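Page 37, continued from 36.
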């Protein structure tokens, strides 16, 4: 009896992801340290300046990132296994890409209308719901959030032309 072992296609290795994340954290650490130094990262006569602790947190991030980077570059046994298989990666992209589009839409049409589109799209695409279920939810949730934030709590959220036309 032979076993059918399914091989997954290569996407990106764990080592590659470790290197990329280490480099990204190094960039963040440099930004944190530079800005902390700008606002003051020394010990003053009355105690630490505003950037003192953030500077050292950035420094710790930098040291840890350099350690990860060096470890992954000099190891004789790099972890070349798949970071993620193709199917789970596609599932993540099915959520990530529409979420990016949603955040861009907020800038142009406001959070409430963008949220209605976002909810309706996900209910239709991934949830496979029909229009009679989609419409009340896609309209009701942003409407409830609008009443809660804009009217009850008086917390302004990003608005688009529709809310502006309605006087909000």
């Amino acid at each position: 009896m032979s076993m059918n072992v399914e091989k997954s296609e290569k996407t990106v290795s764990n080592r590659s992801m470790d290197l990329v994340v280490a480099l990204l954290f190094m960039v963040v650490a440099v930004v944190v340290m530079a800005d902390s130094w700008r606002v003051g990262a020394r010990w003053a006569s009355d105690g630490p300046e505003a950037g003192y602790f953030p500077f050292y947190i950035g420094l710790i991030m930098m040291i840890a990132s350099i350690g990860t980077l060096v470890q992954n570059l000099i190891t004789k046994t790099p972890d070349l296994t798949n970071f993620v298989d193709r199917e789970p990666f596609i599932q993540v992209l099915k959520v990530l890409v529409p979420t990016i589009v949603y955040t861009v839409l907020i800038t142009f049409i406001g959070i409430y209308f963008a949220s209605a589109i976002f909810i309706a799209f996900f209910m239709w695409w991934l949830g496979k719901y029909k229009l009679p279920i989609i419409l009340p939810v896609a309209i009701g949730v942003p409407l409830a959030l609008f009443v809660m934030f804009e009217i009850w709590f008086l917390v302004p959220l990003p608005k688009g032309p529709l809310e502006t036309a309605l006087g909000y």
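The chain has two domains: 14-74, 86-165. Flag for discussion at group meeting. The beta strands are 43-44, 47-48.
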